[in-house]
């Protein structure tokens, strides 16, 4: 049989992602602020487009109308009948201790991986806390309480007095709320979620192992420091006045406003993309898109027809055709985005009906995959929909991804444990197993190495995960390796 080079033809199918399709996917993932900015840029570049601020849609064909103010879903029809203060002493306290530094995100053009997006470096306090909450709270109900409490953080990092309403909003006990707050107060930056200056400083002193009885009494009498009444403090604390001055110096090394160096942009306070209201008679819920967050775009068809008829130059006619195609694409993309958000939101409401009726303890496990199958969308599409979208419900305003079983909101959680938490534990284990005898890694060093891989994890979280895997501290490992080296040598 003769062998040699041969020329063969093969047919194969491959989906090409056009620039317009890529932009459409990005628009699906955008929050309402970014979407409005992107739409305004398109309108500025395309003379055939306009923003319909008055709600006049006569210039558009019905199938291309991106108006969303009247689009809604009756959940009872979709699923069958459903049963229906910051402490006043803070400003006077100017500590000079170690303070948390703001974080900044890296540019990332790959928006196809929902998990990678949620573990990107945080640049705001909200994102910084969300990451830690995702890692520290395995119980879905406690995690939702923690996320809701973030809405009550003041710029200083303290909880506002109104935070107590969360227990009523979510239907949890005051004891459960207090348990979550105490867990949140262990997060970075130290002192976050405190309810007063004294509590903020106490949290930091406890971490430094400096909360002895004398210091505890001083925390209960901070007003005497402002009055410089060291004699009375000395008597109350049972120590000399010189000791009182040294204790005051320790306090001034702490951070009285733990959140002040994080970014607090206006975009952190999102308007809800979806409004969920109870139907009259208590037979279900009505899910509607919020018209204030959905831009209404007009394609000026009459103007296009008029100038096309007057234009004879081929190049100009080609340019007008491209403008028309771009305008059509934008209107359709906005319509598809609106419908996808409405589908996913309606399914969330159907699946979490008991939560809306009875409270946080009735929150059901829910995954992107399960929702995608029920609304007949691709899982990655659902992932884009839930990213940065908010829903106003009778229980409060929640980001879509808060309802999902995976704590970080990225994909399916299996065996009750969040994917990113498992990944971080595995990284810690591998780094320690591969550390050199003369270079034992501290928890800070491990946090730095994990940060290089694109995940921001606090040192205390590293310590918690290390201890949960029964791995000794760096000092204990160093001693053990020295003993092993001495006995084997």
Question: Layout of helices and strands, plus pairs?
Answer:
Layout: H1 19-29, H2 32-45, E1 49-51, E2 72-74, H3 75-79, H4 114-118, H5 125-136, H6 140-149, H7 165-170, H8 174-184, H9 197-207, H10 213-219, H11 222-226, H12 230-237, H13 241-252, E3 274-278, E4 285-289, E5 297-299, H14 301-310, H15 314-351, H16 353-358, H17 368-375, H18 379-386, E6 390-393, E7 396-399, H19 419-433, H20 443-452, H21 459-468, H22 474-488
Parallel strand pairs: 3-6
Antiparallel strand pairs: 1-5, 2-4, 3-4, 6-7
Helix pairs in contact: 1-15, 1-18, 6-8, 12-13, 15-17, 15-18, 17-18, 20-21
Describe the structure.
48% of the residues lie in helices and 6% in strands. It is mainly α. Among the domains are: 90-252, RNA polymerase sigma-54 factor, core-binding domain (Arc Repressor Mutant, subunit A), CATH 1.10.10.1330; 419-488, Homeodomain-like (Arc Repressor Mutant, subunit A, Orthogonal Bundle). Strand 6 (390-393) and strand 7 form a beta hairpin. Helix 15 (314-351) packs across helix 18 (379-386). The longest helix has 38 residues, at 314-351. Mean pLDDT is 77; it is low at 56-122 and 406-419.
Task: Using the coordinates above, name the CATH class of the domain at 90-252.
Answer: Mainly Alpha
What is the overall number of helices? Answer: 22
Separation of the first and last Cα atoms: 67 Å
Query: What is Rg?
Result: 28 Å
**How is the largest sheet built, in terms of strand order?**
2-4-3-6-7
Provide the low-confidence segments as ranges: 56-122, 406-419
Bin the helical content: 40-55%
């Amino acid at each position: 049989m003769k062998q040699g080079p041969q020329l063969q033809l093969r047919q194969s199918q491959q989906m090409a992602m056009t620039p317009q399709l890529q932009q459409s996917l990005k628009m699906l993932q955008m929050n309402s602020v970014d979407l409005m900015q992107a739409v305004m840029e398109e309108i500025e570049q395309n003379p055939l487009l306009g923003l319909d601020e008055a709600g006049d849609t006569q210039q558009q064909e019905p199938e291309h109308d991106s108006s969303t103010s009247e689009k809604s879903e009756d959940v009872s029809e979709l699923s069958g009948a459903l049963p229906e203060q910051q402490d006043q002493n803070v400003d006077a306290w100017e500590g000079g201790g170690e303070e948390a530094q703001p974080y900044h995100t890296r540019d990332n053009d790959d928006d196809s991986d929902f998990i990678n997006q949620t573990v990107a470096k945080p640049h705001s306090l909200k994102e910084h806390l969300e990451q830690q909450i995702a890692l520290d709270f395995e119980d879905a109900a406690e995690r939702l309480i923690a996320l809701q409490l973030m809405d009550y953080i003041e710029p200083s990092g303290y909880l506002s007095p109104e935070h107590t309403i969360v227990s009523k909003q979510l239907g949890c006990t005051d004891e459960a709320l207090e348990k979550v707050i105490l867990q949140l107060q262990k997060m970075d930056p130290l002192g976050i979620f405190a309810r007063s200056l004294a509590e903020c400083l106490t949290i930091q002193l406890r971490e430094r192992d400096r909360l002895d009885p004398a210091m505890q009494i001083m925390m209960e009498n901070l007003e005497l420091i402002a009055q410089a009444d060291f004699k009375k403090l000395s008597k109350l604390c049972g120590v000399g006045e010189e000791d009182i001055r040294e204790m005051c110096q320790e306090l001034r090394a702490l951070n009285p406003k733990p959140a002040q160096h994080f970014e607090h942009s206006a975009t952190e306070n999102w308007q809800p993309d979806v409004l969920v209201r109870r139907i009259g008679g208590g037979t279900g819920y009505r899910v509607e898109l919020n018209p204030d967050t959905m831009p209404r775009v007009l394609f000026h068809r009459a103007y296009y027809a008029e100038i096309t008829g007057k234009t004879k130059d081929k190049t100009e006619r080609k340019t007008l055709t491209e403008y028309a195609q771009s305008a059509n694409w934008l209107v359709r993309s906005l319509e598809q985005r609106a419908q996808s958000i409405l589908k996913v939101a309606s399914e969330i409401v159907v699946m979490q009906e008991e939560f809306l009726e009875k409270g946080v303890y009735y929150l059901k496990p829910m995954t992107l995959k399960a929702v995608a199958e029920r609304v007949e969308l691709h899982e990655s599409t659902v992932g884009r929909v839930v990213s940065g979208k908010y829903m106003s419900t009778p229980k409060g305003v929640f980001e879509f991804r808060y309802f999902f079983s995976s704590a970080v909101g990225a994909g399916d959680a299996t065996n009750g444990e969040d994917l990113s938490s498992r990944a971080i534990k595995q990284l810690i284990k591998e780094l320690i197993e591969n550390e050199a005898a003369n270079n034992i890694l501290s928890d800070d060093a491990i946090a730095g190495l994990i940060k290089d891989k694109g995940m921001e994890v606090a040192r205390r979280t590293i310590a918690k995960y290390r201890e949960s895997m029964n791995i000794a501290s760096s000092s204990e490992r160093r001693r053990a390796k020295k003993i092993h080296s001495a006995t084997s040598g």
